[in-house]
Amino acid sequence: MHLAYPAVLSALLFCTGLYGVLARRNAILILMSVELMLNAVNLNLVAFDVWLSRAARDTLHSGQALTLFTIAIAAAEIGIGLAIVLAVHRNRGTSDIDKLRDTAEGPGTEGPDSSAAEKAEATA
Minimal CB count within 10 Å: which of 15, 52, 77, 79? Predict the structure, then answer.
């Protein structure tokens, strides 16, 4: 098999995942899109490892070893990500990214270092 087939499939998977990250508003769907992008990278790692192992007979299959590390990191990322999303959903009642932006400090809000006297003085 030629290297072009898995490379094109990997590029399509990565672009689909990138579109999902940029266009989606649900945190769960964004995490799924990130997983799709990581799987595209895994496909590329294995395809290039097989392609390069044909040139050299004595290889270590480092692409496949890196794929195993990537799968382990992806599993940890999805576990922590889902825990955070579930905690936010319990507190806020939604996992919509646009509705969660009010947690960030805007230009008109006071920072954590301002005292109560300064806030009372500003309101008076």
Answer: 79
